[in-house]
Amino acid sequence: MKNRRALLFLASLCAVLVLGNLFASGVSGKKFSESFPASACPPTGVGMSSLVSTASGNTPFRNVSGKISSFKKIKSSRYQIASDPILIDGRQVTPVIWQSVPGSWAGSAICSSPQGEQWFVGGAGDITSKGRLLLVNSGMSEAIVDVAVWSESGVQTGKVISFPANSFTQIKLDALAPGQSKLTLRVIPRAGRVSAYMVDERGRGLRSLGGDLVSPVSATSKDFVIAGIPHQIIKATPTSHILRILAPGGVSANVHVDLISKDGTFAPVGLDQRSIAPGVVTEIVLAPEIAATAFSLRVQSDQPVVAAVFSPLSLSGPRDFMWNTATPPLVPFTIAVTGLQPTLVFSGDEISLKIDARLSSGKVQSSRIAGQDIVIWKSPTNALSLMISSVSNGVYGAVIVTSTSGVGGFPLTPGSVLTRAAIPNSNISVINR
């Protein structure tokens, strides 16, 4: 009897092991496909010029304009968008758009793949506002988007926006929050393949007051860095900046801010410990007396917040401004920079990374970046793309681009990341059942 029980136990154990191996082999045999989702670049407004930097003229693209067309070669590493948005299959290379009103202002942004949630800290809805929220649906079905709005008066009435497949729509900021001067938007797509952009353009009568493309952030946070803030000294007087911040929850946020520059790290006056009222967009003037041409901020809070820095800029002719938003931790990626010659600003306790600049001559120029707190690096004039690699932990980066029309910039972050999807296995035995 004992031998029989032992044999039954061994038989059961063997059966379990065999079935387990069969299951494991089925799982390990599952195949996956990997790809970089295509990135959408925003449309060109009336009176504006738009140029997109790509990896090469062989980069596939198509227009986002009603009828869905097939991808074709873009035929230029500096492509001019006439009017409608475009969809670029840049693969591992992030395309960058440069938009300007010649002689008035300029701005820049990353062309991005669809995002689940985006916060825009910037813009105004008052009498000076010519700004707009741009929504691009590069998918094959209708888009439905929720837009929530906050201002200096608190939460505003939100909107639900729907628009057709393979198209775009724009909503004026003064229609979202009439008369309000300090805006923060949250954009959440419910349906569609949606990429969102904000243009903050301002004017008084026929006189331009500048403009910029406001880069989004994906979520609120308690600890983040706003990198690469341009700083000017005019007639021996440093210019002032404005920190715009929102605590969207129901509790006040206690915020501490450190300013990081080559002149040292310190908490600006009034920002060692500052209480931010909940649900109200608050602005704080920053007037750092530093000689550095760029600085970064580290923001720490006991409640989730979003923030950005507004910097008025004066060039030889036009009056412009620039928005700097929170920068995610830097990761290895490649960015197209044809025609931009950007300045890169890196922040972190210990900064270490490598940049390989691919030049128009076909050569590759490698640079090792190392330092503490903040490092500023200028791209070669004839660079087509920059490949960032070997990045140490806790490094943040941003880009500043200057032209005769104005100044623009954006956080150093990929516009599209590698996605992985399971490929279903064919099983003839299932079909025959």
From TrEMBL:
Pfam family, one: DUF5719
Protein name as it appears in the record: Unannotated protein
